[in-house]
Amino acid sequence: MNLKAQTASENKLLAAVEKLRLGMISGNRADLESITSKDLSYGHSSGKIEDYTAFVETFASGKSDFVTADFNKQTVKIAGKTALVRHQLDAKTNDGGKPGEVHLGILLVWHKEGKDWKLFGRQAYKLP
């Protein structure tokens, strides 16, 4: 996370990123829907791409089950109504009752819709 003094826009963006992180763990449909653009493109490190509906349903149904999710080494860049957030996702999962771990690089693209930041794009990639 950026430890420098943060603007109101950065604070609001970081609150949305945190709501995403917590929503991934809880699977709370309303929380996930509230911070996600209807035009979402959600890319997995495997190459699989999900839209808004598939993304929300995957977490809300428990198909993707994050027990923990830490966003480490996070950086933020805001340019007008667009923001890029990069981090390393370190998580414990329990997909289909099978415990696992995830260590991936993530690029989040956020777009300001009205006063709120909405997740517009996400791409995961394997770390070297």
From TrEMBL:
Superkingdom in the source lineage: Bacteria
Pfam families in the cross-refs: DUF4440
InterPro entries: DUF4440, NTF2-like_dom_sf
DUF4440 domain mapped to chain residues: 13-119
UniProt cross-references to Gene3D superfamilies, sorted A to Z: 3.10.450.50
Protein name: DUF4440 domain-containing protein
Lineage: Bacteria, Pseudomonadati, Bacteroidota, Sphingobacteriia, Sphingobacteriales
